Amino acid sequence: MLSKQIIAVARSRSGPMMLRNWSKTTTYARTAQFHSSKLLKAETVKVPQMAESITEGTLETWSKQVGDTVAADEEVASIETDKANVSVNSPQSGKIVELLAQEGDTVTVGQDLFRLEPGEAGESGESSAPVSKESEQQPSPSEADSKKDAAEPSDQQVDKKLPEPPAPESSVTERPKPQQGTPKKEDPVSKEPKKESKPKQEKESKKQEKPPAVAGARTETRVKMNRMRLRIAERLKESQNAAASLTTFNEIDMSSLMEMRKKFKDSVEKEHDVKFGFMSAFARASTLALQEIPAANASIEGDEIVYRDFVDLSVAVATPKGLVTPVVRNIEAMGLVQIEKEIASLAKKARDNKLTIEDMAGGTFTISNGGVFGSLYGTPIINLPQSAVLGMHTIKERPVVVNGQIVIRPIMVVALTYDHRLLDGREAVTFLVKVRDYLEDPRKMLLHA
């Protein structure tokens, strides 16, 4: 009987030690398996091709971080170019294991950007799978004891009915749960990552903290120009230097167009789920005038003039980063409702910063609507290599003479800036007068449908 108690005590002391040794062995096996299978499968994703004329950009943001899982074609990063933001998507599902560039870095086409470990998105802990199989194969302590008891002689078997000996002090014991209101003691292992995260938190807090405003202070703030703003400045100055710009003005009585919009805007929005504004009418009127005055839809290339029988209309849209001009292609084949849908779709993409380079490539004529900001007069700048740009302005009620009577009418001033190298004054003025006539009586546009 005494020998059975001695054996039981020995087992109780050796059992936890055996389990700890077993857990260490499985940990080493798991670590070895991770290094041999995972890192060898990681693939390097490079900066994609952005456009023919663009070879580099600025890494604006990382949408994913190391350790995050991504699905195929999911956005991982955004690169800012001088024309638009380019999304870098994951070529396949997997997990981000390394980022090879920092936000704000200049990256070139073909440069290594990040490393991706292939696998199903949302997969959790593949490396723990082999351990779980081993744990399934590993018998439980009760099963192991029963097997050992069966293998031992009957005189050495321990009576299961006897009370278990007290656990030794060296055995693993559960930690007492802290009472409410008492601070928890941190593990030494968990302190290290928190120390690493403190500098980041301090940096973020420093960025958020702003010095209090002082009356009479004369402070200055310098902000680096982003690529889009630099490109806009470069192109505007290039336009002023290259084109022989001249601007002509005219006034449009908006009464008929406003009456037409008031009559049909509710039905158009109900049937087509799009707002019926003035932009579609101006786009349609300009398209018809461009077909009658082809020089306004042309461009200069070298020592040749290129005339086009199609109209790709660039619509100026203001965004937080600057003015962009997405293109509505083959607008000559569209009706008013379809034009409104295309313009609304491009404007939404511009506001959401999702315009692609293809959305802004090309364009044969531009319309800029400064009236939404309250502009009364203005001289827009030509968007090279185009030959003209139409500027819309705000609508104001003014006294005008109609059939010998002074009446109040809603008037909009429109401006056409044109390249005098391509258009003479006669052609430019004729173009603007035709636009005015179409808009003052929209029924005329139906004759060209």
From TrEMBL:
Statement: the UniProt record of this protein carries the keyword Transit peptide: yes
Residue ranges occupied by any Lipoyl-binding domain in the UniProt entry? 42-117
Q: Where is the composition biased (Low complexity)?
A: 119-130
**Gene Ontology molecular function terms on file:** dihydrolipoyllysine-residue succinyltransferase activity
EC number(s) on record? 2.3.1.61
Q: What is this enzyme's class at the first EC digit?
A: transferase
Region entry Disordered, spans = 118-220
Q: State the GO CC annotations.
A: mitochondrion; oxoglutarate dehydrogenase complex
**Which pathway does the database say it acts in?**
Amino-acid degradation; L-lysine degradation via saccharopine pathway; glutaryl-CoA from L-lysine: step 6/6
- Compartment annotation: Mitochondrion
* Cofactor section: (R)-lipoate
Q: Keywords assigned by UniProt?
A: Acyltransferase, Lipoyl, Mitochondrion, Transferase, Transit peptide, Tricarboxylic acid cycle
Database matches in InterPro entries: 2-oxoA_DH_lipoyl-BS, 2-oxoacid_dehydrogenase, 2-oxoacid_DH_actylTfrase, Biotin_lipoyl, CAT-like_dom_sf, Single_hybrid_motif, SucB
Provide an example Pfam family for this protein: Biotin_lipoyl
Basic and acidic residues composition bias: which ranges? 144-163, 172-210
GO biological process entries: L-lysine catabolic process to acetyl-CoA via saccharopine; tricarboxylic acid cycle
Which SUPFAM superfamilies does this one have?
Answer: CoA-dependent acyltransferases, Single hybrid motif
Q: Which NCBIfam families match?
A: PRK05704.1 (NF004309), sucB (TIGR01347)
Q: To which protein family does this belong?
A: Belongs to the 2-oxoacid dehydrogenase family.
Protein name in UniProt? dihydrolipoyllysine-residue succinyltransferase
